[in-house]
Amino acid sequence: MVLSLTLYCAWLALKQKRKTESVTTCAIPLEKFTISGLQFTVLIFNGTKVIKRQIVNSKPVNRKPKYLSSHPIFSEMKKIMMVDLAAQYQKIQPEIDKAVLDVIHSTAFINGPEVKNFQSELEKYLGVKHVIPCANGTDALQIAMMALGFQPGDEVITASFTYVATAEVIALLKLKPVLVDVLPDTFCIDPKAIEAAITPKTKAIVPVHLFGQCADMDAIMKIAKKHNLAVIEDVAQAIGANYYSASPTPPKEGLSTAQSSNEIVMQHPPLGGRGAKAGTIGTVGCTSFFPSKNLGCYGDGGALYTNDDALAKKARMVANHGQSVQYYHDEIGVNSRLDSLQAAILRIKLRHLDEYAAARRKAADYYDKAFANHPKIVTPKHASYSDHVFHQYTLVLKNADRTRLREFLASKEIPAMIYYPVPLHMQKAFPDPRYKEGDFPVTEMLCKSVISLPMHTELDEDTLKYIVDSVLEFLK
Ligand SMILES: Cc1ncc(COP(=O)(O)O)c(C=O)c1O
After folding, report:
1. 114: Cβ–Cβ under 8 A, 6 or more apart, which residues?
2. Which of 143, 163, 391 most suits a substitution to test ligand 1, by most atoms within 8 Å of the C-beta?
3. So what's the pLDDT on residue 246?
């Protein structure tokens, strides 16, 4: 027999003084209410408002282990997230709310002053001559390739271990994606493999600064120069990272001191430089402002950046239906705009970007120390030529069952993700007789053994300790 009973939990919610749904739901000790053969409706309150109804069956499966409720994390009732955008928003809420309302009141939703202001503030932050905002990171890559004038059949070299967007736009434009393997320690494109993949049809190299760290740009730029290739940096995961060149080039003519900073400060600090921002070293950089990115908006957004005046003009035109004068269309373009609401949010978050990177690095340091020298864990390499802004904190597991580790962590309410489970050359969307399983051994090994742990700007030490202890408990 099933009885229906309504339990009013207002006292509990008030006692816990919880403000958000995710926190409040965790605060309900559901086990307390389960009696064999009964079914309950639990009302979850935020203050006096019912924010969730939950049916609790009498025989709960997957009961939470006891230690969960006694662990400090759960006594604090904090939900662990891969990326905690709510907590980040709470810290800047008054600024964000005001900026959003200001845009709404102005009704300048498209191409308004917020977009132009964001553009110039990002140019200043990056030390680059031109930022071209657009609708998302995938569009940024597509616009870059269109603006560079690539023709069907042209070959573009990129890494086999990356997010699909990088290769997707190459294929969409009827260009030929030429995949090459990555380095096992930095997860970024292997320069030696690039050199071997160049043919007379090669037009560009697309290094992806994966997980927040730059690829070896010195080596890549050297190859590009030798073969006269464009370099399109996919900086979707590494905005704000500094790249340090071992051999800086002299300042380019026509650039102001700030703009030429990329040329004169690329050296590693001990060599006298501050580094150049990721995405400003090659021909063009393409980034994403997807909400979970290091500089994320509250929807979709992206941008290209370049020091090349002609390329910037062309990219602006391509992104705007191929027109530079309204209703005069010189080329087939696309409609790809960053909207004013997103720009207003990004202007505020840009002011915090370095602080966000520092928070991510602090969390990464904690993980690094805790996992150092573990026989089953390889921690992320910190390359000498790049900062790491830890878009992801990704471990390589050795002789450990990744699926079971993930399940174990999930049982402790710790999310973990696999970036990426399938190499590009084995994706169904890219059937290519040139490639078969075994062609990119490093990528294939990584796809089988990487695991990314929660990484964001709001991780405190208690949470990190809980995550680390849980991983070590499973791997002991
Ligand atoms: C490496 C990389 N490139 C490109 C993109 C595409 O960005 P968007 O989602 O804004 O189109 C992403 C987004 O996840 C990415 O991680």
Report:
1. 99, 103, 108, 340, 341, 343, 344, 347
2. 163
3. 81
Pocket (CB within 6 angstroms of ligand 1): 136-138, 162-163, 165-166, 208, 234, 236-237, 288, 290, 300, 302
* CB neighbours of residue 439 within 10 Å: 16
d(C-alpha 79, C-alpha 18), whole Å: 12
Q: Tokens 């864990």 belong to which residue?
A: 377
Within 10 angstroms of residue 268's Cβ, the number of other Cβ atoms is 18
Provide the pLDDT for residue 44: 52
Nearest to 367 by CA among 475, 457, 465, 456: 465
In this prediction, what percent of the chain has a pLDDT beyond 70? 78
Cα separation of 287 and 136, whole Å?
8
CA distance 44 to 171: 49
Any idea where the domains of the chain sit in the sequence? 4-63, 89-351, 353-475
Q: What is the pLDDT of residues 266-318, one digit of tens each?
A: 444 444 455 899 999 999 999 999 999 999 999 999 999 999 999 999 999 99
Find the mean pLDDT for residues 134-155.
98
- How far is the centre of ligand 1, averaged over its atoms, from the C-alpha of 236 (Å)? 5
Residue nearest to atom 12 of ligand 1 (CA): 236
**Fold topology of 89-351:** Aspartate Aminotransferase; domain 2 (3.40.640)
183 three-class SS: coil
In the prediction, which pLDDT does 3 show? 34
How many Å lie between the centroid of ligand 1 and the Cα of residue 222? 26
Task: Give the pLDDT confidence score for residue 46 in this predicted structure.
Answer: 53
Task: Tell which atom from ligand 1 comes closest to the C-alpha of 210.
Answer: 1
Distance 138 CA to ligand 1 centre (A): 6
- Whether pTM > 0.90 for this model: the answer is no
Edge-to-edge strand ranges of the sheet holding 4-8: 4-8, 39-46, 49-57
* Residue type present at position 85: L
CATH topology of domain 353-475: Aspartate Aminotransferase, domain 1 (3.90.1150)
Average of pLDDT values for 421-431?
93
